[in-house]
Amino acid sequence: MAISTLKNCRLVSSLWNSEATTWLKARSEIRFKYYSIDPSVTMKYFLYGHEMVHFAHPNLCMVTYCDYREDNFARLSPYLDLLLENCNYRIPRLRCSYNRFANCIFPLRLISRLAGNLEELELSLQVMYDSDDVRNPATFPFVEMLLLNRFVVDLDPEAMDWKRPEKYVDLIRSLISLTNRVSFLSLTSHSAILNGIFLREIVSNQSNAYAGLKELHVRQINRDGLCAIERMRPDSLVRLEIDWIRDDCEIQLVESVVQRLRNPLQVLCLGVPRNWAIVPLGELPYLERKEIYFRSEI
Predict the structure, then answer these.
(1) What is the DSSP string of 18-60?
(2) How confident is the model at residue 65 (pLDDT cuts 50, 70, 90)?
(3) Is 275 exposed, middle or buried (0-12, 13-18, 19+ CB in 10 A)?
(4) Dihedral of CA 201/115/90/64: which sign?
(5) CA 84 – CA 105 distance, rounded (Å)
(6) SS3 state at 283
(7) d(CA 185, CA 163)
(8) CA distance 53 to 223
(9) Is 292 exposed, middle or buried (0-12, 13-18, 19+ CB in 10 A)?
(10) Which long-range contacts (CB under 8 A, 24 or more apart) does 69-74 make?
(11) Highest mean pLDDT: which of 89-93, 207-211, 229-233, 269-273?
């Protein structure tokens, strides 16, 4: 349930309040914000640590605001060390947003520290600057995350398709090795090219990555991405949601993808171009919910 729904449930009765409060605590987040320009601002967040103890299994949200100077980033290191030293409780969900970084030290150390207990991981990685100053993003070494079942990743919130997507390949491969046990994958980048590369690397991975994937959500997808989905294992995916199918895709390709997944598929949501005709999907024996809508233009 959404947090707003849980809050409304608390108003119904004392019994509902008791039940909903437990769920609310499970969904609540402890947020730390790091400011590279003034690390002293960051330090004050640690002063409230004792007030968070009553959250038995807190969810952690790390948002970092960094400028272009790497020496300012280095000034954050002692405060990150302090946080990691005090992370003795189990943290099942981590949401990490990190802007303007030249390497992956910050999210890497945090993930490594919490890897044993993480069930859900959400990463927003702003990797590139602009087309004239493209840096090679660092990779994530493999960390065993046996409990991880949900992974949400935005490879670059500001990425546009004119950037150099080949620079992301090593980063994507390391993320796949890090999260290949998940059953839920969401690619939330606005770049259909980056999402397509991620899907292509999944199906080309020799270690049978994402073999247990049951739910797939993609914000934007191009023809290469759809072709990659068509090559996925047809016996496990029960939910497919694509918010924005780009104009370079054909109706026949969408039909082919859906038919490839028809046996296990239970939920299908597709945002298709406005100039398309009715999308023929064929027989879907176990489908419980279908939404085909004509997306609005940007």
Answers:
(1) HHHHHHHHHH-EEEEEEESS-HHHHHGGGGGGGGGTT-SS-EE
(2) low
(3) exposed
(4) negative
(5) 13
(6) coil
(7) 24
(8) 48
(9) middle
(10) 69/36, 70/102, 72/36, 72/37, 73/36, 73/101, 73/102, 73/106
(11) 269-273
Which sign does the torsion angle of CA 229, 235, 237, 243 carry? positive
Class of residue 192 by CB neighbours under 10 A (exposed 0-12, middle 13-18, buried 19+): buried
Query: Please, which residues bridge with residue 123 across strands?
Result: 96, 153
Q: Token pair of 30, please? A: 């402890």
How many angstroms separate the CA atoms of 105 and 274, rounded? 43
Q: Is 205 exposed, middle or buried (0-12, 13-18, 19+ CB in 10 A)?
A: middle
Please tell me the distance from the alpha carbon of residue 268 to that of residue 241, in angstroms, as a whole number: 6
Helix (H, G, I), strand (E, B) or coil at 10: coil
Asked if 34 and 76 touch (Cβ cutoff 8 Å), the reply is yes
Calculate ∠ Cα 264-267-271, nearest 5°: 125
CATH topology of domain 92-294: 3.80.10
Give the chain's mean pLDDT: 76
Q: What is the mean pLDDT of residues 97-123?
A: 72
Q: What share of the chain is helix, strand, coil (3-state, %, to 5)?
A: 35, 20, 45
Q: Taking 80 as the threshold, does the pLDDT of residue 205 lie above it?
A: no
* pLDDT score of 105 more than 50: yes
